[in-house]
């Protein structure tokens, strides 16, 4: 088996093999339930492959100075969230309907219990996500919207979309530039 170059923690290839094996052994039931609760299509392989690719991408962007943080994150990524003792939240990314990725993360609030989010938890998550995104993008550049999943208040959707501006404004700007030249 190829080594991912990390001698201090979990091997990425071993993690992927174990993750895939657990999903296949369960006939993807946990992923099917997860997608159903979010109102997403019953495509567990898209969630499996997307999650693996997301973790691999995260590994690629992790600097050598932050290997400990990635190793901790990787150890938390179990197919069955109940087996991840550190996981508190499950973040699911819809990558333009082409793939989905589920990432388990830790927080100070407790263990992953799949109970509906309290108003305090929802406010905290919205504030953290908004503050993080607003660090790099203004309101003129990025729309951010939060809402609960259609069938389940244990899931909070964060929709993030680039602001393209009004087409008429763009045409007016082009016309103004032509007149000035």
Query: How are the strands of the biggest sheet laid out side by side?
Result: 1-2
Overall, the morphology is: globular
Strand content: 15-25%
Whole-number total of structural domains: 2
Query: End-to-end span in angstroms?
Result: 63 Å
Structure description:
The protein is an alpha+beta fold and about 180 residues long. The protein has 2 domains: about 1-110, no CATH class; about 115-180. About 45% of the residues lie in helices and about 15% in strands. The chain is built from 6 helices and 4 strands, in the order H-H-H-H-E-E-H-E-E-H. Strands 1-2 form a two-stranded antiparallel sheet. A two-stranded antiparallel ribbon has the order 3-4. The chain starts with 11 loop residues before the first helix and ends with a helix.
Which short descriptors sum up this protein?
disordered N terminus, alpha+beta, 6 helices, 4 strands, 46% helix, two-stranded antiparallel sheet, 181 residues
Element layout with pairings:
Elements: H1 12-25, H2 29-38, H3 44-61, H4 67-76, E1 89-94, E2 100-105, H5 119-136, E3 142-149, E4 152-162, H6 167-180
Antiparallel strand pairs: 1-2, 3-4
In short:
The chain has a two-stranded antiparallel ribbon. It has a two-stranded antiparallel sheet with strand order 3-4. It is built from 6 helices and 4 strands, in the order ααααββαββα.
